[in-house]
Amino acid sequence: MNKSTQAISVVLPNEIGENTTRRVPAVILLDTSLSMEGAKLDQLNAGFEAFIADLQSDTKASVSIEPLIVPFADTFDMSQGWKTADDLVAQKFTTSGGTSLCQALIGALDALEDRKRMLRASGIDYLRPWVFLITDGEPTDPEYLDEAMRRAKEAEEMHKASIFCVGVEGADMNLLKQLSPARSPIELKASKFKDLFLFVSASFKTLTRTTAGHQVTVPIENDWETVS
Hints:
The chain is built from 8 helices and 5 strands; from the N terminus they run αβααβαβαβαβαα. α2 packs parallel to α7 and α4 runs parallel beside α5 (145-157). It is an alpha/beta fold and 228 residues long. It is 40% helix and 14% strand. Residues 1-11 and 213-217 have low confidence and may be disordered. The chain is globular.
């Protein structure tokens, strides 16, 4: 077992319940380190609240989208577990400590593989998962950077997940490019958090209306770099 696996190993509850709707698992990684204090955090909280309200306003999306919300600072927090959007509750994030960005991304990819196995075992169909990483700084766990880059590259090349990185004012965009090998990261002004979250929500809602075996034009894939 390698060092990174030992450091980030987590066990999440994987309840499926009676909902047999095709799922879209997604991990949303939110930087809540001290550098996000102030206006950035206020806008993040407002954007997240709008994201939940928008998803829950759509009957199909609310039972299809499975967002795992993971704030990260010195460590990352997966305690919320997997929930469909209709069970999400708006919360006010607070800041602390450093930026365990690399470990959070590795943990997210591990969690997605676990979730896919559970969905398959339960006979539930799913679309390719998405990972959204939102950060304003450099990782304070650089010893895990090589592993994070390797896992991100593998996830994209093997179609395990699609990774989207957002750099809030001051983020290292070159580093984020290495963690999002299939598409360029976008740079976001703190005031644009709500626009970003609503854009993501709209893309999720489009996904829930695809027909198995048919191609679909997903807004976030085509317009990703225009968000900022």
